[in-house]
Design goal:
Strand content: 15-25%
Number of strands: 11
Strand order of the largest sheet: 8-7-6-10-9-11
Helix content: 25-40%
Order of helices and strands: EHHEHEHEHEEHEHEHEEHEH
CATH superfamily of the largest domain: SPOUT methyltransferase, trefoil knot domain
Largest sheet: 6 strands, parallel
Radius of gyration: 20 Å
Number of helices: 10
Number of domains: 2
Shape: elongated
Length: 242
């Protein structure tokens, strides 16, 4: 283990910007749980770890040659968190290829990092094979997404595609969440369904809606205008896999 240089500190800070993450094909994980889970699940993609001296001893020995130590002040300077948590790791992004089998979640213009992270966790919990996103969906390597995914980012492949083109060529049945659709419990879902969820405020775009095989809705019994997209995703996934 050795101290982190000023140049490397500056470089890590640059990775907080999406354009630099994309250019380098890297992402940053922060916090004890996220880093330890990452080096367990993603060891072959690890570039290096940055840790406080007090935490460095908890890092498995095989990673010590790729671990740099920092002071609390230095960690604060390179962290995106308001309250930095002991360590940061930089990983190479995996190469992902869209799978044409199994349950897929398709996201059209999801913007909130918390929603994206929660949907990753839901995909992991309910056994979805992958998430396919429109190109304007929030970056899955955004630090808030990684934090809220609780490790699912390491296990669920995420693809950014021309969503309309992807859905047009997909032969599997497509179920789209809408306010006006068939009640979700009255629908028979195959195990390799594509579940399409739309933007938090606008829903799915008309060109995506036109590609639904079955529009589905979660019946409303109260006065709320809509459900949070992650909550709706959870309800629909639970029905699909049951």
């Amino acid at each position: 283990m050795e101290p982190l240089s000023k140049a490397k500190q500056k470089w890590i800070r640059s990775l907080h910007q999406k354009k630099n993450r994309d250019l380098e094909a890297l992402f940053v994980a922060e916090g004890e749980k996220s880093v330890l889970e990452g080096i367990q699940a993603f060891a072959s993609h690890l570039e290096f770890i940055v840790a406080l001296d007090a935490f460095a001893s908890q890092i498995p020995g095989q990673f010590h040659t790729r671990t740099f130590t920092v002071s609390t002040k230095e960690l604060e300077q390179i962290s995106e968190l308001k309250t930095p948590n002991k360590c940061i790791a930089v990983f190479r992004r995996p190469e992902v290829v869209a799978d044409e089998t199994g349950l897929t979640i398709a996201l059209d213009g999801i913007q909130d990092p918390g929603n994206m992270g929660t949907i990753l966790r839901l995909a992991d919990w309910f056994g979805a094979k992958q998430i396919v996103c429109s190109k304007d969906t929030v970056d899955c390597y955004n630090s808030k997404v990684i934090q809220s995914s609780m490790g699912a980012i390491y296990r669920i492949p995420v693809h950014y595609v021309d969503l309309a083109a992807y859905l047009r060529q997909a032969s599997r049945q497509k179920f789209g969440a809408m306010l006006n659709g068939k009640p979700y419990k009255e629908v028979a879902y195959p195990k390799d369904a594509i579940l399409i969820m739309g933007n938090e405020g606008k829903g799915v775009r008309p060109e995506i809606e036109a590609l639904f095989d079955v529009p589905v809705t979660i019946p409303r019994f109260g006065e709320a205008e809509s459900l949070n997209v992650a909550t709706a995703t959870a309800i629909l996934l639970a029905e699909i896999v049951s």
